[in-house]
Amino acid sequence: QKEVEQDPGPLSVPEGAIVSLNCTYSNSAFQYFMWYRQYSRKGPELLMYTYSSGNKEDGRFTAQVDKSSKYISLFIRDSQPSDSATYLCATRSNILTGGGNKLTFGTGTQLKVEL
Amino acid sequence: DGGITQSPKYLFRKEGQNVTLSCEQNLNHDAMYWYRQDPGQGLRLIYYSQIVNDFQKGDIAEGYSVSREKKESFPLTVTSAQKNPTAFYLCASTWTLTGEPQHFGDGTRLSIL
């Protein structure tokens, strides 16, 4: 079993839809959570970075973490064709407990927003 | 403009050949990482370095080698021992102790001739 599970998609939605992307993780030591967006043939770029359980909002994007169920989500409101990309969740443990700043990634979900 | 530069963008390897991928950063980060990305498998860590002249193996280090002679540079060599080298290779960097998320370059696509 992978430490971070993510549905690979592809997920296709109409423009303007609310998109929900999800990951589950198994390691209780994971405390920090990230969402990266990756366009084709490009490197991942950081979208959201959260620590505690709860919600964090940035424009049209909301990251949600539920540590009790080991479940993380990214919501995209008013989705646009420019949101079409692969979305990767990532997580790490406390850097002081070993492993430095190493990340564990999900496999990525491919999203297509259609006109 | 600060960032991470990977070169070349595309690279082709012949059988039995070693090839080296370049990664340079001007963000003054102390830690640098190499990942391999294959379809459906996410990013897998090959090697990482938290300080000059020191590096550690990641999850899939076999068939790869690295060096860290300068803080800003972390080249990756794909050796002939790596039997399935076709993949998208990504370099990342950050500061080890701040916990800041990793920043990525735009990758090198390696293919077999």
What can you tell me about this protein's structure?
The complex is a heterodimer of chains A (115) and B (113). By secondary structure, chain A is mainly β. Chain A has no helices and 11 strands. In chain A, the strands form 2 sheets. In chain A, strands 2, 4, 5, 9, 10 and 11 form a 6-stranded mixed sheet that branches. Chain A has a 5-stranded antiparallel sheet with strand order 1-3-8-7-6, with no helix packed on it. In chain A, a hairpin with a 2-residue loop joins strand 6 (54-58) and strand 7 (61-66). With 113 residues, chain B is mostly beta strands. The model of chain B has no long low-confidence stretch (mean pLDDT 93).
Short description:
The complex is a heterodimer of chains A (115) and B (113). Chain A is mostly beta strands.
Q: From the alpha-carbon coordinates, what is the Rg of chain B to the nearest angstrom?
A: 13 Å
- The helix fraction of chain A, in percent, is under 10%
Work out the number of β strands of chain A: 11
Count, helices of chain B: 0
Order of helices and strands of chain B: EEEEEEEEEEE
Shape of chain B: globular
Derived structural class of chain A: mainly beta
Q: What is the H/E string of chain A?
A: EEEEEEEEEEE
What is the average of the pLDDT values of chain B?
Answer: 93
Number of strands of chain B: 11
User: How many angstroms separate the termini of chain A?
Assistant: 37 Å
Unreliable spans of chain B are none
Q: Which chain pair has the greatest contact?
A: A-B, 25 and 29 residues
Q: What global shape of chain A is seen?
A: globular
Radius of gyration of chain A: 14 Å
Mean pLDDT of chain A: 92
Helix-strand makeup class of chain B? mainly beta
Largest sheet of chain B: 7 strands, mixed
Low-confidence stretches of chain A: none
